[in-house]
Every structure is written in C-alpha cells, then in structure tokens.
Write a structure and sequence with these properties.
Blueprint lengths: L15 H11 L4 H8 L6 H7 L11 E9 L2 E8 L5 H12 L5 E5 L3 E9 L4 H10 L1 H11 L10 E12 L2 E11 L6 H19 L2 E8 L6 E8 L1 H7 L6 H17 L1 H21 L4 H12 L9 E5 L5 E8 L7 H5 L1 H10 L4 H24 L4 H15 L5 H12 L5 H10 L2
Antiparallel strand pairs: 1-2, 3-8, 4-6, 4-7, 5-6, 8-10, 9-10
The chain binds (R)-mevalonate.
Length: about 425
Amino acid sequence: MVGKTSEISGFYKLSPEERLGKLKELVNITDDDIKMLQNAGALDLENANRMIENVVGTTQLPFGLALNFMINGKDYIIPMCIEEPSVVAAASYAASLARPGGGFRTESDDPIMIGQIQMVGIENPENAKKDIMEKKEEVIRYANDVDPAVLVKYGGGLRDIEVRVIESKRGKMLIIHLLVDCRDAMGANAVNTLAEALSPRIEKLIGGKSRLRIISNLAVHRKARSRAVWTKKELEKSTKGKMAGGDVVEAILDAYAFADADPYRCTTNNKGVMNGVDAVVLATGNDFRAIEAGAHSYACIDGRYKPLARYSKNENGDLVGEIELPMAIGLVGGATRTHPIAKIAVKMLGVKTAKELGEIIASVGLAQNFAALRALATEGIQRGHMNLHAKNIAIMAGAKGERIDIVSKQIIEEKRIRVDRAKEILESLN
Ligand code: MEV
C-alpha cells in the first residue's frame, strides 16, 4: 500500500467484481487470490453484497455437528461453526456423559430486551423520574398503539419502563429503559426503532434533550439457563478407571473454585464456555458479538468477574453443572433468515422459537465448559488435541488420503509431532 491511498471514492457503488479490479491495483494479490475470494460457496456474492458493504468475497468456516445432546428429554443434532479443533468433539463428549444423568434441563425468561434513552439537560432528574413513572402506562399504551417496530402484531411490544438516574463525568443523566418483548427477534432493530420513535414524546413529557437511543446488550431480562448432572460413575469411566469418580468431581470443583477466585483463570474458563455458545450462535446466523458482550458483562454484574457456569455436588456425590447467561438471539430477521447455511442450521435443529434455541445454546455452553474442566482436571487437554493436531501436521507435510492417518498415527506414537518428521515418514512410504 506504500504511496497509495485507501480513499477510493464510490467504491461502495461498484460491483464485487469491479471492486476486486480496483483492489488489485492497490494491494499485492494475485489472480488466484481473486478467484479464491470469488469462490463464494453457499453464500453467493450477490447475497453477501446485500448483507454488508464493500463486499469482494466471502469466507468460510467449518460447519460441524455436536451429537448426543438430550435437552428436556428431546434429542438434538447441533450445528457448530468454528475454526478451533476439538471444540465439537468436546461438546459431543460432554453431552454423552450427561445422558445417564438425564441430559440437560433448561428454562429461560421471556424475550425482553432493554432499549436505553439517554436524557440530558434535565434540571431535576429525580422529579423527571417521578413524572415518567406516573405517566408510564400512558407511554406504554401510546407505544403499543403506534407499534412503530411492528412487535405488537407478533405478540410482543413495550412491556414496562424503568428509569435510572446515573452520575456521569458530565453530571447527572436520566436513563430510561424500555423493556421490550421481542418475541422471536433478536430485537436490535425493533428496540432501536422504538427508542427513536418514543424519544420526542419523552422530551415533551419531562423536557431536556434525548441523546443516545439504543439497545443494551446487557440483556439481563432475557437469560437462558441450563443444568446437567454428571454422575460419579460416568466420570470414573471417562478416565478409563484411572481416577475414582468422586475424585474427578472434587478435581472439577477445584477447577471451578480456581476460576471463581481468579480473573486470569476465569477469563479462560469463560472463553471455553463461549467456544460452544459462539459456535452455535454463528451457525444459526446470530450476532455473536452481542452475545459475547452480554455474557462477559453479566459475568461481572455484581462487581467481580465470575464463571458463567457453576458447579456443586448433589446428595449422591454426583457433579451438578448450571449455567445462566443473557441470550439475545433471534429466529426471524438478520442472517438467520438470509444466510443459506444458517437457514439449514435452524431447520436441522427443528427449533420453533428463539427461546428454545437460546436454551440449546446455553446447554452447549455448559457442556463445553464441563468438557474443558473435566479434561484439564484429569488428563490435561493436550492429549485430546494431539490427534487433530497430528493430522494437520501430516497434511502440512503433504500427506493425502489414507496416508494422513498413517503418518499422524506414527508421529503421535513417536511423540515427534513435527512437519520435518512427518515428511520423512511420508517419503519412506513412497
Ligand atoms: C480453549 O479454547 C478453551 C479452554 O482453554 C477452556 C478452559 O481452559 O477452560 C480449554
């Protein structure tokens, strides 16, 4: 890019193909690179070009299936979209170990999102708060009569209003929370539309000036919960009898206590939860940044960053895992309805409501965390990673077809998981 500019006027007006032509003049890419970008796969360029701006291609991620999940007595095959090896296998394994304990039991809140209206320049915020609360029912009625976000039609709408006075760097502010039932939508568009439509009325009611009108991703009123029991017996079997089941329970409780007490560990612990959560969120075309932001913020909602999943021992000495996290996901609108693969993901799950999907996602998050803690607290995670890692090394060394397995097996046995050794073995096979 030296000596060239990234200010390209009218770039957005060009077709993806024309954009690639321009791009070639500016950066070091070959015709093969361009072909690769254009090789769009299921999400064709026309569709992609309608989804975001300045599109020149699409990218792909592996789409895998987590098996063995029994949730509320029903079996699901769960699509996961992720680049990291072992995540899908770990979730599936955790789900299989949970089956003898009855699988996952879930529940969740109504799909209520918060829309925030920031009011400034109000002389007496406490009085203004009282004024809004007195007129609350009237404002709610007005919002639902006008239904600017077309929610009432689908059984949703503005349910309640909360008002907070906050201290800020620039003095007191009045923050109005619109509690909006979004039904099967994630809700960002609907909530933002409603907040913008209502703000002039709020200004009229209490004076002052509305500034930001936007959804909060801290979706505390829309949480999903999942719970599972991993029996001592299953846990013992999982170590091939190397550890007693009760010891595995204790080791996992120690791992949980570590995360609970230490933010450095807790961040990694929660990253493990999000490996599962994000993969399903992504596969179903949902907004994983919204879920990430909400989850981590919720994890420290009482002032200390804590594990998203909790563990305890029941009266039989079995391990009980429970998770609760905000779950702002949708089934209507956005990429869930436009991305061809996301549509298939939803179809194979067979979910009818966003609530059901959210509970599945929470269960995968719990399974993922359990799998990581079990592995870390027993044999460590590297052994499990090695199979896939060795296969990748064999492929990097040039192995194809059945030779991938032959080479990877040998480098594992020799404990020399390196490309140079894989190449030597490959040559010896010729
Ligand atoms: C790796 O992606 C996730 C883990 O580090 C999670 C954890 O440590 O709990 C294995």
